Amino acid sequence: MASLRSLATAAALLGQYGVYAAVPPVKRAVPSLAQVINQKSFNVLPSVPTAEEYNASSAPWVPQNLTSAGLLDKPFHVYDDEFLDILGPSPTFTIIAQTPKDPIFHEAVVWYKPKDEVFFVQNAGNADAGTGLNKSAAIFKVSLKEVDAVKDSRNAVGKVTVTQIPSNPEIPNPNGATQYKGQLLYAAEGQGPKKAPALIILNPVEPYNTTVLLNNYFGRQFNSLNDITINPNNLDIYFTDPSYGESNNFRPAPGIIPQVYRYNDKTGAVTVAADGFAMPNGITFSPGGKYAYVTDTGIWRHGLELTNPSSIYRFTVQADGTFENRKTFAFVDTNIPDGVHCDSKGNVYAGVGDGVHVWNPSGKLLGKIYTGRTAANFQFVGGGRMIVAGETQLYYVTLAAKGDFVESQL
Ligand SMILES: *[C@@H]1O[C@H](CO)[C@@H](O)[C@H](O)[C@H]1NC(C)=O
Ligand SMILES: *[C@@H]1O[C@H](CO)[C@@H](O)[C@H](O)[C@H]1NC(C)=O
Ligand SMILES: *[C@@H]1O[C@H](CO)[C@@H](O)[C@H](O)[C@H]1NC(C)=O
Ligand SMILES: *[C@@H]1O[C@H](CO)[C@@H](O)[C@H](O)[C@H]1NC(C)=O
């Protein structure tokens, strides 16, 4: 019988010649809340629907011989073995809050480390929220102490307190947020023609006072600022400006090209990092800041425009903080990729039409954290803890993978 060492040597030698089949792959345990999805099972369908029958806005994709209920029952979907490393042996998945109709769990999920709280915002311009033009979307928070206590149940609705925050002066339709020097920094979409979109700092403790950091580009209004992140190297603030305020009838027609901006916090300089988007939306940097990821959700602009992007683009970030080498990183299979974040190993997560999808740094789909409904945004909130915002439902997930944070901003 061959020793382990000689088997390994033989495998290495065979590998040199491109023969890898000699050592069978290790069969790995699948956690109880996970299921393996065999992609070959749907490569050939008995009949393939037309775009009028099935498209990006349709109900989430259910692979052949599976059911929506089955997909929800084991919500961690393994598309590639690498996803098992992200999940670890015992990932958890809990619904922690729910509303009948009002989409208060929408975006700007952000961890406030000093009090171990998570802030998030209501959907702006949604009819069931009554927000947008006449009323701003509100900010809410939960305490992770309460949330951690229920992590082993699947449904903990009613056991976690959701508290509304009265920002003052009010942040008009906040949509994106990031940690910023021990406080929170919001990208606000603006409200009507007079309240211009802005970057606004929120004091995350009472009295929740706010200070505007930036509200124009050389005297011109932005369209409706959406998402915001901080580059871990130069600590500049990068943010996106699509025109969802117009799409949702609470901002005038766009007056400036939809693009990604960069704000130098030391000098006040505002520059453009990238254009070429229909609707630049989520933005994040990889750990160490080598790459920037920007989602383009142009498929939703003036209603559904099926041949526009629903994609994640990756840029290489130069030492001087400028972007180059635009690359199509992923095209999502369910509606749009909205918020995007990396874990500490550089895997890329995006909130999409049926939960959170996860890719490795090469853009290979590893798996899904399946909610069966739109998860516009989510965030790691310390270690492997994650809050996922699903419009009328809020979720808590724990994984082996860990989030990536700029320590100086926490
Ligand atoms: C689906 O189930 C049917 C009936 O059991 C079976 O014939 C078919 O091979 C299955 N298809 C796939 C892709 O697993
Ligand atoms: C997309 O598919 C849905 C059915 O799921 C259909 O109602 C809608 O009209 C389709 N949209 C387009 C633009 O074809
Ligand atoms: C906003 O208020 C105006 C004036 O009261 C009203 O005409 C309009 O219908 C309201 N719009 C929404 C979206 O509630
Ligand atoms: C909130 O008010 C305090 C006290 O005046 C001030 O020191 C702080 O800078 C303010 N923070 C913000 C974000 O406005």
UniProtKB/TrEMBL annotation:
Signal peptide interval: 1-21
SUPFAM superfamilies in the record: Calcium-dependent phosphotriesterase
InterPro entries, per the entry: 6-blade_b-propeller_TolB-like, Oryzine_lactonohydrolase, SGL
Keywords noted in UniProt: Signal
Origin superkingdom: Eukaryota
Domain SMP-30/Gluconolactonase/LRE-like region: 172-382
Residue stretches spanning the membrane: none
Matches recorded under PANTHER family: PUTATIVE (AFU_ORTHOLOGUE AFUA_1G08990)-RELATED, SMP-30_GLUCONOLACTONASE_LRE-LIKE REGION DOMAIN-CONTAINING PROTEIN-RELATED
Protein name: SMP-30/Gluconolactonase/LRE-like region domain-containing protein
